[in-house]
Design a protein that fits this description.
The protein is an alpha/beta fold. The protein has 3 domains: about 120 residues, Probable tRNA modification gtpase trme, domain 1 (Gyrase A, domain 2, 2-Layer Sandwich), CATH 3.30.1360; about 130 residues, Four Helix Bundle (Hemerythrin (Met), subunit A), CATH 1.20.120; about 160 residues, P-loop containing nucleotide triphosphate hydrolases (Rossmann fold, 3-Layer(aba) Sandwich). The strands form 2 sheets. A 6-stranded mixed β-sheet has the order 3-4-5-2-1-6, covered by helices on one side. Strands 8-9-7-10-11-12 form a 6-stranded mixed β-sheet, sandwiched between helices. Helix 4 runs antiparallel to helix 5 and helix 7 packs antiparallel against helix 14. It is flat, with a radius of gyration of 29 Å. The mean pLDDT is about 90. Bound molecules: guanosine-5'-diphosphate and magnesium ion. Guanosine-5'-diphosphate binds next to helix 9.
Length: about 450
Protein backbone atom coordinates (compact mmCIF):
# COMPACT_ATOMS: atom_id res chain seq x y z
CA UNK A 1 0.00 0.00 0.00
CA UNK A 2 1.38 3.39 -0.87
CA UNK A 3 1.59 6.04 1.76
CA UNK A 4 -1.40 8.42 2.01
CA UNK A 5 -0.40 11.99 2.67
CA UNK A 6 -3.82 13.53 2.17
CA UNK A 7 -5.24 12.30 5.50
CA UNK A 8 -5.32 14.58 8.48
CA UNK A 9 -3.47 12.77 11.23
CA UNK A 10 -3.70 13.28 14.99
CA UNK A 11 -1.81 12.00 18.02
CA UNK A 12 -1.09 12.81 21.63
CA UNK A 13 2.52 14.05 21.47
CA UNK A 14 3.23 14.04 25.21
CA UNK A 15 3.81 10.94 27.37
CA UNK A 16 0.95 9.06 29.00
CA UNK A 17 0.34 9.89 32.63
CA UNK A 18 -0.52 12.91 34.75
CA UNK A 19 1.35 16.08 33.86
CA UNK A 20 0.89 19.83 33.84
CA UNK A 21 -0.01 19.88 30.17
CA UNK A 22 -0.73 17.34 27.43
CA UNK A 23 -0.37 18.23 23.78
CA UNK A 24 -2.34 16.85 20.85
CA UNK A 25 -0.85 17.37 17.45
CA UNK A 26 -2.93 17.43 14.27
CA UNK A 27 -1.51 17.71 10.77
CA UNK A 28 -3.07 17.73 7.32
CA UNK A 29 -5.55 19.59 5.12
CA UNK A 30 -8.45 19.64 7.65
CA UNK A 31 -6.62 21.69 10.31
CA UNK A 32 -8.03 25.01 9.22
CA UNK A 33 -11.60 23.68 9.18
CA UNK A 34 -11.10 21.89 12.50
CA UNK A 35 -9.89 25.04 14.19
CA UNK A 36 -13.16 26.70 13.21
CA UNK A 37 -15.49 23.88 14.24
CA UNK A 38 -13.73 22.82 17.41
CA UNK A 39 -13.12 26.32 18.78
CA UNK A 40 -16.28 27.84 17.22
CA UNK A 41 -14.35 30.41 15.23
CA UNK A 42 -15.89 32.39 12.42
CA UNK A 43 -12.57 33.19 10.73
CA UNK A 44 -9.24 31.45 10.11
CA UNK A 45 -6.82 31.48 13.05
CA UNK A 46 -3.74 33.63 12.64
CA UNK A 47 -0.76 31.32 11.97
CA UNK A 48 1.76 30.89 14.81
CA UNK A 49 -0.47 32.68 17.26
CA UNK A 50 -1.62 31.17 20.57
CA UNK A 51 -5.31 31.27 21.40
CA UNK A 52 -7.02 30.43 24.65
CA UNK A 53 -10.34 28.68 24.05
CA UNK A 54 -12.82 26.01 25.04
CA UNK A 55 -12.54 22.74 23.12
CA UNK A 56 -16.05 21.64 22.00
CA UNK A 57 -16.65 18.04 20.99
CA UNK A 58 -18.76 17.03 17.99
CA UNK A 59 -21.75 16.64 20.32
CA UNK A 60 -21.24 20.16 21.68
CA UNK A 61 -19.70 19.19 25.01
CA UNK A 62 -17.01 21.48 26.44
CA UNK A 63 -14.12 19.03 26.86
CA UNK A 64 -11.49 21.36 28.34
CA UNK A 65 -10.01 24.84 28.44
CA UNK A 66 -7.09 24.68 26.03
CA UNK A 67 -4.43 26.74 24.29
CA UNK A 68 -4.04 26.09 20.58
CA UNK A 69 -1.77 27.25 17.84
CA UNK A 70 -2.18 26.94 14.09
CA UNK A 71 0.84 26.55 11.77
CA UNK A 72 0.21 27.21 8.10
CA UNK A 73 1.94 24.99 5.55
CA UNK A 74 4.80 24.94 4.68
CA UNK A 75 5.94 26.67 7.87
CA UNK A 76 5.30 23.81 10.27
CA UNK A 77 7.31 20.85 11.52
CA UNK A 78 5.64 18.44 9.09
CA UNK A 79 5.36 20.96 6.28
CA UNK A 80 1.54 20.54 6.21
CA UNK A 81 -1.07 22.67 7.99
CA UNK A 82 -0.76 21.80 11.66
CA UNK A 83 -2.75 22.42 14.80
CA UNK A 84 -1.28 21.96 18.26
CA UNK A 85 -3.74 21.77 21.12
CA UNK A 86 -2.48 21.92 24.71
CA UNK A 87 -4.97 20.69 27.27
CA UNK A 88 -4.75 19.89 30.98
CA UNK A 89 -2.37 16.99 31.53
CA UNK A 90 -4.88 14.32 32.42
CA UNK A 91 -4.65 11.32 30.07
CA UNK A 92 -8.48 11.08 30.13
CA UNK A 93 -8.81 14.58 28.67
CA UNK A 94 -6.10 14.04 26.05
CA UNK A 95 -7.74 10.77 25.01
CA UNK A 96 -11.20 12.37 24.73
CA UNK A 97 -9.78 15.17 22.58
CA UNK A 98 -8.05 12.61 20.36
CA UNK A 99 -11.21 10.50 20.11
CA UNK A 100 -13.20 13.57 19.17
CA UNK A 101 -10.71 14.46 16.43
CA UNK A 102 -10.98 10.93 15.07
CA UNK A 103 -14.77 11.22 15.12
CA UNK A 104 -14.36 14.39 13.08
CA UNK A 105 -12.47 12.45 10.40
CA UNK A 106 -8.83 12.52 11.52
CA UNK A 107 -6.76 9.36 11.53
CA UNK A 108 -4.59 8.29 14.47
CA UNK A 109 -1.01 9.01 13.38
CA UNK A 110 1.48 6.18 13.01
CA UNK A 111 4.79 6.32 14.90
CA UNK A 112 7.04 9.00 13.40
CA UNK A 113 4.40 10.04 10.88
CA UNK A 114 4.78 13.79 11.46
CA UNK A 115 8.51 13.45 10.82
CA UNK A 116 7.84 11.23 7.81
CA UNK A 117 5.69 13.99 6.34
CA UNK A 118 8.43 16.52 7.03
CA UNK A 119 10.75 14.29 5.01
CA UNK A 120 8.23 13.70 2.20
CA UNK A 121 7.57 17.44 2.03
CA UNK A 122 11.29 18.00 1.55
CA UNK A 123 11.74 19.94 4.79
CA UNK A 124 14.43 17.58 6.04
CA UNK A 125 16.52 14.78 4.55
CA UNK A 126 16.49 11.28 5.96
CA UNK A 127 19.61 11.80 8.09
CA UNK A 128 17.83 14.72 9.76
CA UNK A 129 14.71 12.63 10.33
CA UNK A 130 16.94 10.07 12.03
CA UNK A 131 18.55 12.85 14.03
CA UNK A 132 15.12 13.78 15.46
CA UNK A 133 14.98 10.28 16.92
CA UNK A 134 18.61 10.38 18.10
CA UNK A 135 17.90 13.70 19.81
CA UNK A 136 14.93 12.29 21.72
CA UNK A 137 16.87 9.21 22.77
CA UNK A 138 20.25 10.83 23.51
CA UNK A 139 21.54 9.89 26.94
CA UNK A 140 24.58 12.10 27.36
CA UNK A 141 25.68 15.66 26.55
CA UNK A 142 27.94 14.42 23.77
CA UNK A 143 25.13 12.40 22.19
CA UNK A 144 22.83 15.42 22.37
CA UNK A 145 25.44 17.62 20.74
CA UNK A 146 25.97 15.14 17.90
CA UNK A 147 22.23 14.70 17.33
CA UNK A 148 21.74 18.47 17.26
CA UNK A 149 24.54 18.81 14.79
CA UNK A 150 22.97 16.22 12.55
CA UNK A 151 19.51 17.75 12.86
CA UNK A 152 20.96 20.99 11.59
CA UNK A 153 21.98 19.09 8.48
CA UNK A 154 25.72 18.47 9.07
CA UNK A 155 25.66 14.99 7.58
CA UNK A 156 23.58 16.10 4.59
CA UNK A 157 26.09 18.88 3.90
CA UNK A 158 29.06 16.51 4.04
CA UNK A 159 27.30 14.11 1.70
CA UNK A 160 26.43 17.06 -0.57
CA UNK A 161 30.14 17.90 -0.90
CA UNK A 162 30.90 14.26 -1.58
CA UNK A 163 28.23 14.25 -4.24
CA UNK A 164 29.60 17.37 -5.99
CA UNK A 165 33.05 15.80 -6.15
CA UNK A 166 31.57 12.62 -7.54
CA UNK A 167 29.56 14.44 -10.16
CA UNK A 168 32.74 16.28 -11.28
CA UNK A 169 34.55 12.96 -11.49
CA UNK A 170 31.78 11.39 -13.51
CA UNK A 171 31.84 14.35 -15.91
CA UNK A 172 35.57 13.83 -16.32
CA UNK A 173 35.18 10.11 -17.01
CA UNK A 174 32.41 10.78 -19.48
CA UNK A 175 34.68 13.17 -21.34
CA UNK A 176 37.19 10.35 -21.30
CA UNK A 177 34.63 8.15 -23.05
CA UNK A 178 34.22 10.71 -25.81
CA UNK A 179 37.88 11.49 -26.39
CA UNK A 180 40.62 9.18 -27.54
CA UNK A 181 42.76 8.35 -24.56
CA UNK A 182 45.99 9.88 -25.88
CA UNK A 183 44.36 13.33 -25.96
CA UNK A 184 43.99 13.45 -22.20
CA UNK A 185 46.86 15.18 -20.47
CA UNK A 186 48.66 13.13 -17.82
CA UNK A 187 48.04 15.73 -15.09
CA UNK A 188 44.29 15.47 -15.66
CA UNK A 189 44.52 11.75 -14.98
CA UNK A 190 46.56 12.35 -11.82
CA UNK A 191 44.01 14.86 -10.68
CA UNK A 192 41.25 12.32 -11.18
CA UNK A 193 43.09 9.63 -9.23
CA UNK A 194 43.73 12.07 -6.40
CA UNK A 195 40.05 13.00 -6.28
CA UNK A 196 38.95 9.37 -6.20
CA UNK A 197 41.44 8.72 -3.43
CA UNK A 198 40.05 11.66 -1.44
CA UNK A 199 36.53 10.31 -1.84
CA UNK A 200 37.68 6.87 -0.70
CA UNK A 201 39.40 8.33 2.37
CA UNK A 202 36.38 10.38 3.27
CA UNK A 203 34.06 7.42 2.91
CA UNK A 204 36.34 5.19 5.02
CA UNK A 205 36.51 7.83 7.75
CA UNK A 206 32.73 7.99 7.90
CA UNK A 207 32.45 4.20 8.14
CA UNK A 208 35.09 4.23 10.85
CA UNK A 209 33.21 6.87 12.84
CA UNK A 210 30.20 4.55 13.19
CA UNK A 211 31.92 3.02 16.22
CA UNK A 212 31.91 6.40 17.98
CA UNK A 213 28.25 6.80 17.15
CA UNK A 214 27.64 3.43 18.81
CA UNK A 215 29.50 4.60 21.95
CA UNK A 216 27.28 7.67 22.05
CA UNK A 217 24.09 5.75 21.45
CA UNK A 218 24.64 2.69 23.64
CA UNK A 219 27.22 4.04 26.07
CA UNK A 220 30.77 2.74 26.43
CA UNK A 221 30.41 -0.85 27.59
CA UNK A 222 32.38 -1.23 30.77
CA UNK A 223 32.73 -4.71 32.20
CA UNK A 224 33.41 -5.28 35.90
CA UNK A 225 35.49 -8.43 36.15
CA UNK A 226 37.22 -10.37 38.88
CA UNK A 227 37.13 -13.37 41.18
CA UNK A 228 34.11 -14.09 43.36
CA UNK A 229 34.05 -11.90 46.46
CA UNK A 230 36.58 -9.41 45.08
CA UNK A 231 33.92 -6.69 45.47
CA UNK A 232 32.56 -6.33 41.93
CA UNK A 233 28.95 -5.87 42.97
CA UNK A 234 30.00 -3.48 45.74
CA UNK A 235 31.86 -1.43 43.12
CA UNK A 236 28.80 -1.37 40.84
CA UNK A 237 26.63 -0.12 43.70
CA UNK A 238 29.25 2.43 44.68
CA UNK A 239 29.51 3.83 41.13
CA UNK A 240 25.73 3.90 40.75
CA UNK A 241 25.21 5.51 44.11
CA UNK A 242 22.47 3.05 45.07
CA UNK A 243 22.13 -0.63 45.89
CA UNK A 244 21.51 -2.38 42.61
CA UNK A 245 23.42 -5.62 42.99
CA UNK A 246 23.27 -8.09 45.86
CA UNK A 247 26.45 -7.95 47.88
CA UNK A 248 27.23 -11.07 49.82
CA UNK A 249 30.02 -12.63 51.81
CA UNK A 250 29.20 -15.87 50.11
CA UNK A 251 31.14 -16.18 46.86
CA UNK A 252 29.28 -16.76 43.61
CA UNK A 253 26.09 -14.76 44.36
CA UNK A 254 26.01 -12.77 41.11
CA UNK A 255 25.33 -15.61 38.74
CA UNK A 256 23.80 -13.70 35.90
CA UNK A 257 24.94 -10.24 34.96
CA UNK A 258 23.53 -6.75 35.47
CA UNK A 259 23.60 -3.75 33.18
CA UNK A 260 23.20 -0.18 34.42
CA UNK A 261 23.92 3.19 32.90
CA UNK A 262 25.81 6.06 34.48
CA UNK A 263 26.91 9.41 33.14
CA UNK A 264 30.54 10.34 33.77
CA UNK A 265 31.71 13.68 32.43
CA UNK A 266 29.99 14.01 29.08
CA UNK A 267 30.00 10.25 28.46
CA UNK A 268 27.30 7.68 28.87
CA UNK A 269 28.64 4.43 30.33
CA UNK A 270 27.01 1.05 30.41
CA UNK A 271 28.28 -0.79 33.49
CA UNK A 272 28.06 -4.56 33.48
CA UNK A 273 28.53 -6.57 36.65
CA UNK A 274 29.40 -10.20 36.08
CA UNK A 275 29.68 -13.54 37.80
CA UNK A 276 33.09 -14.16 39.32
CA UNK A 277 35.89 -15.83 37.44
CA UNK A 278 36.81 -19.13 39.03
CA UNK A 279 36.22 -22.85 38.77
CA UNK A 280 32.43 -23.18 38.99
CA UNK A 281 30.83 -25.40 41.63
CA UNK A 282 27.33 -25.50 40.21
CA UNK A 283 25.71 -25.57 36.78
CA UNK A 284 24.18 -22.11 37.19
CA UNK A 285 27.57 -20.68 38.08
CA UNK A 286 29.13 -22.33 35.05
CA UNK A 287 26.53 -20.61 32.88
CA UNK A 288 27.36 -17.27 34.54
CA UNK A 289 31.05 -17.70 33.80
CA UNK A 290 30.39 -18.67 30.19
CA UNK A 291 28.30 -15.49 29.91
CA UNK A 292 31.15 -13.44 31.41
CA UNK A 293 33.53 -14.66 28.72
CA UNK A 294 30.93 -13.74 26.10
CA UNK A 295 30.62 -10.26 27.59
CA UNK A 296 34.40 -9.86 27.47
CA UNK A 297 34.11 -10.03 23.68
CA UNK A 298 31.40 -7.36 23.67
CA UNK A 299 32.98 -4.93 26.15
CA UNK A 300 35.02 -1.80 25.39
CA UNK A 301 36.56 -1.13 28.80
CA UNK A 302 37.42 -3.44 31.71
CA UNK A 303 37.48 -2.79 35.43
CA UNK A 304 39.36 -5.73 36.91
CA UNK A 305 38.56 -5.91 40.62
CA UNK A 306 40.93 -7.84 42.87
CA UNK A 307 40.89 -8.40 46.60
CA UNK A 308 44.11 -6.64 47.66
CA UNK A 309 44.35 -8.73 50.83
CA UNK A 310 44.78 -11.87 48.72
CA UNK A 311 47.50 -12.92 46.26
CA UNK A 312 46.90 -11.79 42.65
CA UNK A 313 44.58 -14.09 40.71
CA UNK A 314 45.46 -15.90 37.49
CA UNK A 315 43.29 -14.90 34.57
CA UNK A 316 42.04 -17.19 31.80
CA UNK A 317 43.80 -16.57 28.48
CA UNK A 318 40.58 -15.46 26.76
CA UNK A 319 40.49 -12.54 29.16
CA UNK A 320 44.21 -11.77 29.42
CA UNK A 321 44.39 -11.41 25.65
CA UNK A 322 41.76 -8.67 25.68
CA UNK A 323 43.23 -6.45 28.38
CA UNK A 324 45.53 -3.60 27.37
CA UNK A 325 46.88 -0.39 28.88
CA UNK A 326 44.29 1.50 26.87
CA UNK A 327 41.18 -0.41 27.94
CA UNK A 328 41.74 -1.75 31.45
CA UNK A 329 42.11 -0.53 35.03
CA UNK A 330 43.13 -2.95 37.78
CA UNK A 331 41.36 -2.04 41.00
CA UNK A 332 43.06 -3.17 44.21
CA UNK A 333 39.93 -3.30 46.32
CA UNK A 334 39.49 -3.54 50.12
CA UNK A 335 42.50 -1.33 50.95
CA UNK A 336 40.61 -0.45 54.15
CA UNK A 337 41.70 -3.89 55.39
CA UNK A 338 45.37 -2.85 55.44
CA UNK A 339 48.35 -2.58 53.12
CA UNK A 340 47.67 -4.31 49.83
CA UNK A 341 49.67 -7.41 48.90
CA UNK A 342 51.98 -6.77 45.93
CA UNK A 343 50.46 -7.27 42.47
CA UNK A 344 51.70 -9.98 40.12
CA UNK A 345 54.07 -8.67 37.41
CA UNK A 346 51.32 -8.99 34.84
CA UNK A 347 48.76 -6.93 36.78
CA UNK A 348 51.46 -4.44 37.76
CA UNK A 349 52.03 -3.79 34.04
CA UNK A 350 48.43 -2.55 33.63
CA UNK A 351 47.12 0.77 34.99
CA UNK A 352 46.17 0.13 38.62
CA UNK A 353 44.49 2.00 41.47
CA UNK A 354 43.83 1.26 45.14
CA UNK A 355 40.17 1.54 46.16
CA UNK A 356 37.69 0.54 48.79
CA UNK A 357 34.26 -0.08 47.34
CA UNK A 358 32.61 -0.16 50.76
CA UNK A 359 34.22 3.12 51.97
CA UNK A 360 34.20 4.83 48.55
CA UNK A 361 37.94 5.43 48.88
CA UNK A 362 39.64 6.13 45.54
CA UNK A 363 36.32 6.18 43.64
CA UNK A 364 36.62 9.80 42.47
CA UNK A 365 40.10 9.00 41.24
CA UNK A 366 38.76 5.95 39.42
CA UNK A 367 36.10 8.08 37.70
CA UNK A 368 38.76 10.53 36.51
CA UNK A 369 40.95 7.75 35.11
CA UNK A 370 37.95 6.11 33.45
CA UNK A 371 36.92 9.38 31.78
CA UNK A 372 40.52 9.82 30.58
CA UNK A 373 40.52 6.35 29.04
CA UNK A 374 37.22 7.02 27.28
CA UNK A 375 38.34 10.46 26.10
CA UNK A 376 41.50 8.97 24.63
CA UNK A 377 40.28 5.75 23.09
CA UNK A 378 36.50 5.85 22.79
CA UNK A 379 35.46 9.29 21.73
CA UNK A 380 35.88 11.11 18.50
CA UNK A 381 37.94 14.30 18.74
CA UNK A 382 35.94 15.76 15.89
CA UNK A 383 33.28 18.19 17.11
CA UNK A 384 31.29 17.59 13.94
CA UNK A 385 30.76 13.94 14.78
CA UNK A 386 28.19 12.35 12.53
CA UNK A 387 25.92 9.69 13.98
CA UNK A 388 26.58 7.03 11.39
CA UNK A 389 24.04 4.28 11.99
CA UNK A 390 23.78 0.77 10.53
CA UNK A 391 21.67 1.97 7.61
CA UNK A 392 24.25 4.62 6.73
CA UNK A 393 27.24 2.39 7.15
CA UNK A 394 25.73 -0.31 4.91
CA UNK A 395 25.24 2.27 2.16
CA UNK A 396 28.71 3.74 2.78
CA UNK A 397 30.30 0.30 2.48
CA UNK A 398 28.55 -0.16 -0.87
CA UNK A 399 29.82 3.23 -1.91
CA UNK A 400 33.38 2.44 -0.86
CA UNK A 401 33.31 -0.79 -2.88
CA UNK A 402 32.16 1.18 -5.96
CA UNK A 403 34.84 3.85 -5.50
CA UNK A 404 37.60 1.28 -5.03
CA UNK A 405 36.34 -0.53 -8.11
CA UNK A 406 36.39 2.70 -10.13
CA UNK A 407 39.92 3.53 -9.03
CA UNK A 408 41.24 0.08 -9.83
CA UNK A 409 39.60 0.06 -13.25
CA UNK A 410 40.96 3.51 -14.03
CA UNK A 411 44.48 2.48 -13.08
CA UNK A 412 44.18 -0.67 -15.20
CA UNK A 413 43.01 1.40 -18.16
CA UNK A 414 39.70 -0.43 -18.36
CA UNK A 415 36.79 0.88 -20.41
CA UNK A 416 35.53 4.28 -19.32
CA UNK A 417 31.91 3.06 -19.40
CA UNK A 418 32.71 0.51 -16.70
CA UNK A 419 34.41 3.12 -14.55
CA UNK A 420 31.50 5.53 -14.94
CA UNK A 421 29.06 2.79 -13.98
CA UNK A 422 30.94 2.16 -10.72
CA UNK A 423 30.88 5.85 -9.96
CA UNK A 424 27.17 6.08 -10.56
CA UNK A 425 26.81 3.24 -8.07
CA UNK A 426 28.61 5.42 -5.52
CA UNK A 427 26.30 8.33 -6.32
CA UNK A 428 23.33 6.07 -5.83
CA UNK A 429 24.57 5.15 -2.32
CA UNK A 430 24.56 8.85 -1.35
CA UNK A 431 20.98 9.02 -2.58
CA UNK A 432 20.08 6.07 -0.36
CA UNK A 433 21.48 7.75 2.73
CA UNK A 434 19.76 11.08 2.17
CA UNK A 435 16.60 9.23 1.31
CA UNK A 436 14.82 8.28 -1.83
CA UNK A 437 11.12 8.65 -1.37
CA UNK A 438 10.32 5.67 -3.59
CA UNK A 439 11.57 3.14 -1.08
CA UNK A 440 8.38 2.69 0.99
CA UNK A 441 9.51 -0.45 2.74
CA UNK A 442 12.67 1.19 4.05
CA UNK A 443 10.70 4.26 5.18
CA UNK A 444 8.09 2.10 6.93
CA UNK A 445 10.86 0.31 8.76
CA UNK A 446 12.74 3.47 9.68
CA UNK A 447 9.80 5.46 11.00
CA UNK A 448 8.23 2.54 12.88
CA UNK A 449 10.88 2.94 15.58
CA UNK A 450 9.77 6.53 16.31
CA UNK A 451 7.36 7.58 19.03
CA UNK A 452 3.75 8.31 18.22
CA UNK A 453 3.19 12.05 17.88
CA UNK A 454 6.71 12.74 16.61
N1 LIG B 1 36.41 -4.50 53.82
C1 LIG B 1 35.90 -4.44 52.60
N2 LIG B 1 35.02 -5.36 52.21
C2 LIG B 1 34.52 -5.28 50.94
C3 LIG B 1 34.91 -4.24 50.07
N3 LIG B 1 34.25 -4.43 48.89
C4 LIG B 1 33.48 -5.52 49.05
N4 LIG B 1 33.65 -6.05 50.29
C5 LIG B 1 32.97 -7.21 50.86
O1 LIG B 1 33.33 -8.37 50.10
C6 LIG B 1 32.23 -9.27 50.01
C7 LIG B 1 31.93 -9.56 48.56
O2 LIG B 1 31.48 -8.39 47.93
P1 LIG B 1 30.69 -8.42 46.57
O3 LIG B 1 30.56 -7.02 46.14
O4 LIG B 1 29.45 -9.24 46.69
O5 LIG B 1 31.74 -9.20 45.66
P2 LIG B 1 31.54 -9.85 44.22
O6 LIG B 1 31.33 -11.31 44.44
O7 LIG B 1 32.84 -9.59 43.53
O8 LIG B 1 30.39 -9.20 43.56
C8 LIG B 1 31.08 -8.59 50.75
O9 LIG B 1 31.01 -9.09 52.05
C9 LIG B 1 31.46 -7.13 50.75
O10 LIG B 1 30.92 -6.41 51.82
C10 LIG B 1 35.86 -3.27 50.53
O11 LIG B 1 36.24 -2.32 49.85
N5 LIG B 1 36.33 -3.42 51.80
MG1 LIG C 1 28.70 -10.02 42.72
Amino acid sequence: MTYQQTDTIAAVATPQGESAIAMIRVSGPDCRGLSKSVFRRTNDPRPRHSYHSTYYSVSGEALDEVVYCFFEEPKSFSGDDTLEVSCHGNPLIATRVLEDLIERGCRQADPGEFTRRAFLNGRIDLTQAEAVMELIQARSDKALQAANNQLRGAFGRQLGELKNDLVDSIAFIEAYIDFPEEDLPEEKKDEHVARLQRLIDFCSRLIDSSKYAAFLRDGVKTLILGEPNAGKSSLLNCLLGFERAIVSEEPGTTRDFLRERIILGSHSIQLMDTAGLREPESGIEKEGIRKTIELVEEADVFLLVIDSSLPSPDLPDEIRNKLTNENCIVLQNKIDLGDPLPLSDYLQSLPNLPISATNSTGIENLKTVLVDIIDTSFSCQDDDLILVNTRHSEALKGMLACLNGALEKFQNDEAAELIASDMRGALDAIGQILGRIDNEEMLDHLFSSFCIGK
